[in-house]
Write a structure and sequence with these properties.
Blueprint lengths: L6 H24 L9 H4 L1 E7 L6 H15 L5 E5 L3 E6 L4 H15 L8 E5 L5 H26 L2 H24 L6 H31 L4 H33 L2 H37 L11
Antiparallel strand pairs: 1-3, 1-4, 2-3
Helix pairs in contact: 1-6, 3-4, 5-6, 5-7, 6-7, 6-9, 7-8, 7-9, 8-9
């Protein structure tokens, strides 16, 4: 496959996906919904658990969501099943009187026996601004150290720069998924982001290693060496991703709601990491090599 010949198509595809994410964040922020759907672990909130004496199917979930919006004004509550007939409602911070009215309204709707909720409490933000800043700093420092390590290992700053840009690409794809699908942003987001960064850089280094080996064996230009190297490692990259995805997909389909919210971004992250290792990182290295190979020539002054 001609990866270098088609590199601009790959770059455009990535740019379009990331642009969709950025526009979605702007739209969400302008709509007063917030760029991301931050979970109560970030913002704090209230939790009410009720035994409605029926299973929580999609129709019941939509009915309860409408009641929550009417009573509390929260148009995006998290509604999850609790056992066979219970429901857990997680919403923005709401006073006690509003939560009592919510329980009464739901009781009138479904006519169950309980006179009080099974649980009714406020939850403070467990992830403070300090912790969020610390997580961001950890990612930035990690990326800088990766840049230094790869530059030292391959004796070429362009390898390190290409790998870091590919990692930023993966992070932006993950943020796009969280913004577009309104996946709750919680501590699982930090764990998932760090997991994908580690997964992606490992695959990228494998391709870079093969490029370095082939540069010493092949008498060809960089585009041919890169195409050959990616094709040689393509099977390994795809097989590794498939085996990883099998387990994550199983978690998504058989796991509870909180597990699904963690597994879905991981699925997208593995796909994005594999894509960037094959279609983004090495072509970026080629572009950086091309810049040095074709420096801007000084325009000589005309002589008369």
């Amino acid at each position: 496959m001609k990866f270098i010949e088609n590199r601009k198509k790959f770059f455009i595809l990535s740019a379009v996906v990331i642009l969709i994410g950025l526009l979605t964040m702007i739209y969400n922020a302008a709509s007063q919904k917030g760029a991301f759907n931050q979970d109560i672990e970030f913002t704090g909130g209230s939790i009410v658990q009720i035994n409605i004496e029926r299973s929580l199917n999609s129709d019941v979930k939509n009915e309860i969501r409408a009641i929550v919006a009417e009573v509390t004004g929260d148009t995006a509550p998290r509604i999850a099943a609790a056992g066979d007939t219970g429901v857990i409602i997680t919403m923005k911070r709401t006073d006690v009187e509003a939560r009592r009215k919510l329980f009464t309204t739901i009781k009138e709707k479904y006519n169950f026996q309980d006179e009080i909720p099974l649980a009714d409490t406020d939850v403070s933000a467990s992830i403070s601004n300090e912790i969020k800043l610390g997580a961001l700093q950890a990612v930035v420092v990690g990326i800088i150290l990766i840049l230094i390590y790869i530059t030292y290992r391959f004796k070429d700053f362009r390898f390190g720069a290409s790998a870091v840009i590919a990692l930023v690409h993966d992070v932006l794809i993950m943020l796009t998924v969280y913004a577009v699908f309104r996946i709750p942003l919680n501590n699982s987001f930090i764990a998932g982001m760090l997991t994908i960064i580690g997964y992606s850089i490992n695959d990228t280094i494998i391709v870079f290693d093969r490029i370095r080996e082939n540069k010493g064996k092949m008498h060809a230009d960089d585009s041919e060496i890169i195409d050959q190297s990616i094709n040689q490692t393509l099977g390994r990259s795809i097989n590794t991703s498939i085996t990883t995805l099998i387990m994550i997909v199983l978690l998504y389909f058989i796991g509870v709601e909180s597990v699904k919210q963690f597994a879905f971004p991981l699925i997208v992250g593995v796909l994005a990491g594999t894509y960037s290792s094959i279609f983004v990182a090495s072509p970026l290295w080629y572009e950086l090599k091309k810049i040095k190979r074709n420096p801007n020539k000084r325009i000589k002054p005309k002589t008369t």
